[in-house]
Every structure is written in structure tokens, then in C-alpha cells.
């Protein structure tokens, strides 16, 4: 059974390896291998005490990535429970089979390759520990994949109302942010960057499942075989536990969520653009995935700017609005992809391409600009000093303008094929598709487009020149308006000239 | 003024190695009720998608009342109402909201939109699902709301891909009478279907597609030659089940 599912998954992967998916997959592999290189270099070049700490941190980040990744849209195309509903299998068989199938993919392979640093670490400590490393590594990867699937399955169960879609984003936002901003916590605890990981943090990391492989290798090097056996037993037990939980979650299919529309109050859009704007604003309020992504951006940014308060740094607060818009654009720039084949309705309306693009831009601006402004003002008041003001005021118009431009540009030029809304499974967590590539692309593009204003701000700050610093604001205003208009113009032209091709990529 | 509602000439589409539609020529006279039949995978949906401007052909032309669909798309789109099969719609709107949105997107005046939407929802018996999003519609309701959006712009030609699939008998009767009235009022209809008796009842002209080609076309009585349509159909496309196969079934 597992063999059949693995072959099915392999075939699905091969068939879906095209277009944007191909690009994002290759980007993912390259990024993964680069991270692998860094880990290997750390474990080989650093002293044994630091190598262990580095491994502990890295493996903790893998655990985090595997748990959070699927909700960020990293889950690959694959086998879904829905596909196998009528195949006579027990839940446990199904869980084991799906686990086998889940192992076929880029993620597990990259993790396994990166995990070879554990073997190097063992080799440095004591050659006798190498077999232990070779044994615990695949177990660890199995555990990661199993845990990741348990999370996806439980998300489907929890993400069933607008409120829970928003609430679900809170832990992810905080977790991902801790991954990026973890140095703040370490600095807060230790009072400064350390060359080696402080012992008491390393001890905590050894307790987490991600630390167990390191513990096993170190125990083997010391000749503490009882501990080695305990860790291997623990890993096997955790895998069994995760599989059991997964089987339980698979047992009862998730009821599809019913979101009701509002009572009709006579909607009369004045223009075609207004019609699209109204359609989009309604969709933002009713699509659980959109609500989830937007809340994620909000929570991530709030954590990002509030965390440095631990070390009495308030400088990030005025930038909250700027960061929020940037992340919101990154996590939402797949509007046409997530609407799927509904594009035919736009394509068949004579000359509707412009209204479609401009309406989407306006709705998004209406949605993110007010909270962004409020966050900027509140942050600036809390920070109290004027030093960050030119940065916040100087970048906000630019990220708003460039953001609304990129939103539609990326959405039209980088389509990602995902299941149509009416054909999706009942679990929103398993339909994430490859949106993570889009997030990275947008973040980098935003930084590049903001370069002129950033250059003025940086030079102004370095030279302590207020005139230069404030010059960024008018530049941002002009650039923001131009980018919102220009990138939108390009999207309209693309949609007008290559609309049917976009539809084929989505269908 | 041309008398052809739809004219396809040399229309071709390849998907990789496979020729989905192989240089078909098809003429739908104005005012006709035209049935396009063929087995699964014959290329009906591909041909219709190219005919209305949703799929770019590799070769050939499609004209609606003499207007080239691919050269003058804006003019052509004003003349056609389309119901595609199995595609997503604006899923997070209610039926009334979606029709209002589409009406304005098509450039109809707000008052006209409001009146037409009211009428369409009542006639198609969708007015009761006032707060249900399209996403929550049953398969039959989806067909009906898609038909409503095809009718909304007041087209002269309707192109409907499998309009009766999954539709309950009562709704099917409603849809039929709407389509008959549309043709009686001077409109033209092209529909694709698997259901031969339905095509026989409704259509005055038919075309049979098989493996990307049109294997027969013309007034229905000519194509039938006095026999039931499904007999002629099976003869044209072949492949009736052999009684010896599946011998293990229920043995």
C-alpha cells in the first residue's frame, strides 16, 4: 500500500513540475542547499562546543519550519485524504501510507541532506557515534514529516470560521517571527551576543524533539548507550504518537465551512471599478485563506516590532505600518491564482481588464492603508523620539504604492496553479500551494523598488543630514504613485493581451 | 449583415502531441438552436472555448455575427453570453451580488442591472438562497446562476457547455423554456451535450464531433435520416460495448 502511494506521489510531483511551481521549487532547493552548506560549515569549522550549539539551533529551526511551513503555503501538491475516501483502508494504514507518500518530495530530501551535518558532528566527537547519527537522522526526518502532517490536519479542523482563521494566524505569526528575531531573546537573556550558545539555552534546546538527535550523538560519543537507546526509543515513540494522532484526525472528515453572505442592502456600484472593489472587499471578509494570510502579516509585524521592547529598543515601533504593508503584499500577491478559473468572467466582460486590476488595487489599499497609518502614528507616539519619523513617513507612501502595484503585477505575471475554490478539499491547510516563492519575490522586489528612498534615508542618517532624510518623503510619494499606476498598467496590458494564457495556467 | 451567428474556420488546438481540435469548420445559422454532440474528449469544450475567446487557437478563426473573436474581442464579447463547464465563479459573493458585479463589469446601467438581476433570480428560482455564497451552491444551482450571468448582458448568441448536467428535472424544464423563448425571440443558441434525446427535442441543427473533427453537421433531420440520434451517433463515433466484456461482473 505504502509503495503504491509513494509511486502515485512521485508521478504527481513529476506531472506538476512546470511553470511557476518549477521556479519556486528550484528556488526552494537552492535556498535549502545554501542553508545546508552553512550548517555543514558551522559544524565542521567551529569548535566542538559551538558546533553542538549551532546544530541545536539549526535543528530547532527545521522543526519550526516543518510545523509552520505548510500554513505558509509550503505544502506540495500531493495526495489528499479526499482522493482516497473510497479506498477500503483503516485510518492507521492510511496515515502510514500518506506518511510514506509525504516523504517523496523536495522538503524531506533537503532536510536529509542538511542533516548529514549531524554525521559530521558525530565523526568529530567519536567515530563510534557515527552509526547512531546515521540511525537517528532518518528517524528525525520521519518525525518532522509526521508532525507537519498532524499540524495540517488539525488546522483543517480548527480553521472553520472567520474568527478561528484569524486566531490561527496568531501562533504562526509569533513563531515565524521568533525564528527571524530570536537573537533579541538571546540578547535579552544573556545581555549580549555570545560566541557559544549559552549552556542553559542549549539545555532547553536539547529537551525539544529537535535536540534529541544531537543528544543521542553526544551520548554515543561518551559511551552512554542507555541514553542513546532512550533517545531512539523516544523518537520512535514520538513518530508512533504523531501517526496515531494523524490517524485520529483522518478518521472524521472535516465538515466544509459555510460562510453566509450579508443580507442584501441594495448594492449599486457606480462604476465597473467600484463593482470590482466591492467584490474584492466582500471576498476579503469571507475567504478564510485571505483572512488568515492578512492576520498572519499583522501578527508577524506586531511581534517583530514589539519583541525588541524586551531589550528596551523602541526604534522599530514607528516602522510597524511600513512592515505590515510589505508583509501583507507578500502574503497576498496571488489574487488571480487563488480565484482560479473564475478569471473567465473577467475575460468575457468586454474591456473589463482595467476595472479588474484597478478595482483589486483600490480594495487592497482601502484594506491595508488605514491600519498601516494607525500603526505608524501609534508607533511614533510610543517611540516618542523623532529620529525614526523620516524613515516611517518616508517609506510608507512608497510601500503602499509599490505594494499595490506589485500585488496585481505578481498576481498576473507569476500564476501558481492551485485547486479551484469550489474543488478544494475541506482542509484549507492542505491547499496552500507554492506561495512561499511569491512571498520571497515580493519582499526582495519591495526592497529594490524602495532603493531610491532607502538610499536617501541611509545617507541622511549616516551624515546626520535632516534635509536628505526628509527628501525621501516626496521621492516616496512620487515613486509610490508612479509604481502603483505603472505596475498596474503592466498588469492590465498583460491581462488584456495574454488573458486566455493566464486562464490556461490556472485551469 | 451576416446570417451566421457563429462561424468557425480551420480552428485548431494542440495540447503537446495531442491534437484536441483538428481544423474544424462549423457554421451556426442565426436564429438556430444548435447542438454540438460527441463523446468525452471529442474536443467540444476546447472548440467552444476557442469560439468565445477563452482559449487561443493555434490556427483558424472564430467569428460571431461576422466579428472576429480574436481580432475584435471587445465587440465580439458584447454579442455572446457564455456558460462554461466546471469553471470557478466569483465564489465568495451571493448570487445577487455576483450578478450585480458582473452586470456593472459588462457596462450595463445600474438600473438595468438591478431589474434584470431581480427577474433572473426569480425566474431561475434562486431568489430564496439570498445569503448563500456561490461556493455553497449545489451543482444544479451553479448551472442556473451561470446561465443567469450568461443571459444578463442581453446577448444575441448563447454558448452553453453542458447546461443540463446535474440540473434537476424541474429546473431543466425552466431552462429549456427560457432557451426556447430566447430562440423564438430571434436569439441563437449553441449547446454541447451528451444527452441525445434532449438534443433531439431542443435543437434544429446539430454537429457531431469525434477525436477533434466534425464528422457530421447539418439540420437535425438530415443528420438523423429518420433514425434516433443516438443510433446515428454510435455509428459515427463507434465503440458500443461488447457484451462479452466484463464477464466477471456480478458473476
TrEMBL record, chain A:
Signal peptide annotation: none
Keyword presence, Protein biosynthesis: no
Top-rank taxon: Bacteria
Parts of the chain that traverse the membrane: 23-42, 54-73, 94-123, 129-153, 165-189, 225-250, 291-311, 317-335, 363-382, 388-416, 437-458, 470-488
Entry keywords, A to Z: Membrane, Transmembrane, Transmembrane helix
Protein name: ABC-2 type transport system permease protein
Species, as recorded: Asanoa hainanensis
Automatic annotation (TrEMBL), chain B:
SMART domains attached to this UniProt entry: AAA
Keyword Cell inner membrane: no
Alphabetical GO biological process terms: response to antibiotic
N-terminal signal peptide: none
Segments forming domain ABC transporter: 6-236
Organism this protein belongs to: Asanoa hainanensis
Any GO CC annotation of this UniProt entry: plasma membrane
Cellular localization per UniProt: Cell membrane
Membrane topology classification: Peripheral membrane protein
The protein's name: ABC-2 type transport system ATP-binding protein
Membrane-spanning parts: none
Entries under Pfam families matching the protein: ABC_tran
Record carries keyword ATP-binding: yes
Molecular function in Gene Ontology: ATP binding; ATP hydrolysis activity
InterPro entries the UniProt entry points to: AAA+_ATPase, ABC_transporter-like_ATP-bd, ABC_transporter-like_CS, ABC_transporter_ATP-binding, P-loop_NTPase
Keywords carried by this UniProt record: Antibiotic resistance, ATP-binding, Nucleotide-binding, Transport
Superkingdom to which the source organism belongs: Bacteria
CDD domains the UniProt entry points to: ABC_DR_subfamily_A
